[in-house]
Amino acid sequence: MSEAVKNLIIKGRQVVEDDWQVLRLAEPIEGAPAHDPATVTVPEGKFIVPLSLWLVQRELLAARTAAGEIAVWIASDERPETLKDLLGQFPLIAVDFPKFTDGRGYSIAYNLRTRLGWTGELRAVGDVLRDQLFSMQRVGFDAFAVRSDRDVHDALKGLSDFSETYQASVDQKVPLFRRHPRPAPAVVNNDGAGI
Predict the structure, then answer these.
(1) Is residue 194 part of a domain?
(2) What is the pTM of this model?
(3) Is residue 193 part of a domain?
(4) CA atoms of 141 and 19, how far apart (whole Å)
């Protein structure tokens, strides 16, 4: 496979080849409807399909899901709780960022990790740029499909843009003020001086 057609992602803080493809349904345009998730045929191979498609074709895709060939991606307007009791079926879950300014995917990732207990691969797909990667890893993403017009090797540097974090999150459970010992406050004798 030539370098030009390799599908490269960031996974485990490394750039690696990826054999998954993201299946997207056609967006409705004037004069043509969007594809119906119930009638779309998922090609052979390893596909990350829209949650809406997987939900309506769940029985049809059951064998491929069990074989590790089907994963799901969650749109920014969908709830991860839909998969609450089904998480163990998937080799990975992706969260779609339809545009750089849509931050709902951060909450979806955080909830998948903290409330739903997802421990598998959590991949960011869509309009994923270097500037987002550090914050994305903080909420639980561990794989990133960077936008195709961007250099994945340059984007990798975004994971280490900052050396320290202040707040607690998925990647660091303890806030900075609790991680570093502070000296005890000096005892001040305040016997009414200055009254």
Answers:
(1) no
(2) 0.81
(3) no
(4) 18
| Residue range of the domain that includes 167 | 3-179
- Max Cα–Cα distance, the chain, nearest Å: 84
Contact criterion met (CB below 8 Å) for 135 and 167: no
Per-residue pLDDT reduced to its tens digit, 157-178? 887 776 665 675 677 666 666 6
Q: How many CA atoms lie within 13 A of 143 on its CB side?
A: 21
d(CA 115, CA 53) in angstroms, rounded, equals 24
Angle, in degrees to the nearest 10, between helices 130-138 and 104-114: 30
CATH code assigned at 97: 3.20.20
Residue 100, CA distances (Å) to 62, 81, 107, 142 in order: 33, 24, 15, 18
Count the domains in the chain: 1
